[in-house]
Amino acid sequence: MIDVKRRAVAGVDPPYAGQRIAIPSVLSSGLSVINQFFEWFGDLGIFFWQVVRAAVTPPFEFRELFRQLDEIGSKSLPLVALAGAATGVVLSLEARYSLTRFGAKSLLPAAIVFSVIHETGPIITGLVVSGRVGAGIGAELASMKVTEQIDAIEASAVNPYRLLAATRIVACILMLPLLTLAADACGVVMGWITQALSEPVSLHQFLNSGFKGADFNDFLPPTFKTAAFGLIIGLIACFQGMRTKGGAAGVGRAATSSVVLSSLFVILADVVLVKFIIIFFP
Amino acid sequence: MDTIDQVTTKQGPAGKDGGAPAISVEDLHKSFGSQKVLNGITLRVNRGETLAVLGRSGTGKSVLLRLIIGLEKPDSGSVRIHGQDIAGLALDQMGEIRKKMGFLFQHAALYDSLTVGQNVAFPLQHHKKQMSESERNDRVKTLLAEVGLGEDDFQKMPSDISGGMQKRVGLARALALEPDILLLDEPTAGLDPISSSEIDELVLKLQAEHHMASIVVTHDLHSAKTIADRLALLDNGKVLIDGNFEELQKSEIEFVKEFLKHS
Fold it and tell me: What is the ipTM metric for this complex?
């Protein structure tokens, strides 16, 4: 803190006499935030490396992996399907209005199908799963951390990175593409139903028209990019959970930060992956 | 007359094989931030011997156990288990050493999503894969019977049982792999006098049967007198005295006298 004082000379006081200039304090706080930001990434990198090492060396925890596949995959399915269906309805209503204005109503099935499989299906799936699964994993592992259960696992000569983190992350990576397929299917079907309520069109006609001109490059890369979303959700939720401190408040913070950070990084990753797909799968 | 600077560190009776102590802690230092918790701890425990570590709250007793099991890393000094220095060991290497150690946490640290039986079976499922399910169940029932619990408790969840029962389950889990070394963190904390006495009797019985090297961290002097061969008193991160109860009673160190007076 710089303390600036000017003596009164001949009875004249400068306007800033006696005031303190807070710039170094602000700079110090800013540097501290930047330092914490890089520390977080550094710790995340170390955590990721420990998980990778644990995941590729035996003994493998297949039993726990299958349990997590069920927990993350089949139990998220209803929510993801509902979100996909709702997205299909909204897309159909919005696109119908816009395309009619420009005299392109016949393109409605293609607009719905391409929107769903290219972007809204994957991103909606990623965000829904980051909310449900991210919070669940973050809270569960945080609760285990503050009650010393993770320490007890380690004291029992079981690698907690292998048993707890690797299984959840691998389950997220495997399940996200499958959940995306479900969201896509529900979105397309509900888009058809919404259109069919306005004008009669069979599902066969709708799908023929919608997938006309589509190939595997339109479908596979956007679906498999959600594996990257799964990695982000699983990694961040496990990391935030397993480093929790501070009792019940810490558990709450871990659950919240797991959702917020995984959602944020899913969106940022989508930006990068979309560009990647456009370049490598034109 | 012992002074604070003249720490009497006993090795205790020699191990039966005359070899390295089961647990050897040399000049251990540990800080958390600016707080110095352990300031040069030296202790040795042989197989078949029980050492009670006493001290005021916050003197690093639990931290000492966590350093011995490898859940924390020391700033300096060494921890040797059966002569092997555990500093710098990778997680999986440390796992091989931990298979011969049992740890009872202060609040038992039972896995709350597993039943009592599944909790005790956890180490067996991971490290005794050659056991069939019926063999594992039999072993779990034997372990629960050793700690005074019955088959009725097998399917209960940790939240359905009392604190004393949770400690017994924690003890059964710690004994699942027939360890050479047993570490107990405040085994009677939070228990009523009758339950505390039952846990003490249980620890004595298990020690008589299994001849483990044991360290019991406690602030309960009565419990320490009952179950331990030697007592070590910590203060300001150092071992003030390490000997049997009679030696503590004869000590002229002020803190020792004060501790005994208030216990």
Answer: 0.89
